[in-house]
Design a protein that fits this description.
The complex is a heterodimer of chains A (116) and B (111). Chain A has 116 residues and is mainly beta. Chain A has no helices and 10 strands. Chain A starts with a strand and ends with a strand. In chain A, 41% of the residues are buried. In chain B, the strands form 2 sheets. In chain B, strands 2, 4, 5, 6, 9, 10 and 11 form a 7-stranded mixed sheet that branches. Classes of the chains: A mainly beta (116), B mainly beta (111).
Chain lengths: 116, 111
């Protein structure tokens, strides 16, 4: 069965950095685009970024462009999100999700809190 | 950017009664491959979102048949034929045709 397990969240000060990871299993990871989606406390869902199956194409929401970098390691079945210059408004649960057109599976999420 | 507008924001429903959620996009969601990438998700309290419907009207495996999706172009609807207690949560539409955008969500609660 498809499993996506995020890790790496935590408390970080404004201006700081954090790297999220997502371990995938139960499917051929290298066949799929992958996405990061976030949800601020009590708010709706916001797409953050996606990456193509071979890493040749990436796309970012305007709110994170230039600060966040998505990457993947198909040999390790892993997806990453490097987050730099973090702001209070980046506080959210970050979900890893499979695909970018259909978003058929989600992880359980990892909480990132940006606060001094 | 494509804007997805959902209504209503909140939907109190009596158990056993139908419910309907509207989702409108600011642009046509027909992709270059002919598909319309409009999906619906349910998020129960404290849980990750779960996909219910993909490409407008295709129900996911394990989703009760009281859930149905319809629409075309820029106008889409999610219907629950008879609301049950387990349907409480927030419902989101999402388009995957032009990058990726979510609607603001509709909270379904029992009256």
């Amino acid at each position: 069965q498809v499993q996506l397990v995020e890790s790496g969240g935590g408390l970080v000060k404004p201006g700081g950095s954090l790297r999220l990871s997502c371990a995938a299993s139960g499917f051929t990871f290298s066949d799929y685009y992958m996405s990061w989606i976030r949800q601020a406390p009590g708010k709706g869902l916001e797409w953050v970024s996606y990456i193509s199956s071979s890493s040749s194409y990436t796309n970012y929401a305007d709110s994170v462009k230039g600060r966040f970098t998505i990457s993947r390691d198909n040999a390790k079945n892993s997806l990453y999100l490097q987050m730099n210059s973090l702001r209070a408004e980046d506080t959210a649960v970050y979900y890893c999700a499979r695909d970018r057109w259909l978003i058929d599976y989600w992880g359980q999420g990892t909480l990132v809190t940006v606060s001094s | 950017d494509v804007v997805m507008t959902q209504s209503p924001l909140s939907l109190p429903v009596t158990l056993g009664q139908p419910a309907s959620i509207s989702c409108r996009s600011s642009q046509s969601l027909v992709y270059s491959d002919g598909n319309t990438y409009l999906n619906w998700f349910q998020q129960r309290p404290g849980q990750s979102p779960r996909r219910l419907i993909y490409k407008v009207s295709n129900r996911d495996s394990g989703v009760p048949d009281r859930f149905s999706g319809s629409g075309s172009g820029t106008d889409f609807t999610l219907k629950i034929s008879r609301v049950e207690a387990e349907d409480v949560g927030v419902y989101y539409c999402m388009q995957g045709t032009h990058s990726l955008t979510f609607g603001g969500g509709t909270k379904v609660e029992i009256k």
